[in-house]
Amino acid sequence: MKTQEFDEKFDNGEDVTPYLDLSTVRRPGHEQRRVNVDFPIWMIQALDREATRLGVTRQSIIKVWIAERLERHT
Question: What is the number of alpha carbons within 13 Å of residue 39 lying toward its C-beta?
């Protein structure tokens, strides 16, 4: 597909995602990096209880809570 045709489809509000290779998409500034953190057992147990109650993983709840805290400070 030529660029002009792609632009016309986009400008007309058509879905252009089938023409994109999304397998290589990256969000600048949102790359992930592994970090190891040691928590006391009582804290892990409390995290697991809350994660189970919400139906999410322990990692998800930790990420959300840290993100919420950081947003409050910026």
Answer: 12
Contact (Cβ atoms closer than 8 angstroms) between residue 62 and residue 47: yes
Segment 26-37 shows an average pLDDT of 88
Closest Cα to residue 49, out of 61, 36, 37? Answer: 61
Assessment of whether the complete model's pTM goes beyond 0.70: no
Distances 72 to 25, 28, 46, 68 between C-alpha atoms, Å: 29, 22, 23, 6
Q: How many residues does the chain have?
A: 74
For 9-29, write each residue's pLDDT tens digit.
Answer: 999 999 999 999 888 888 888
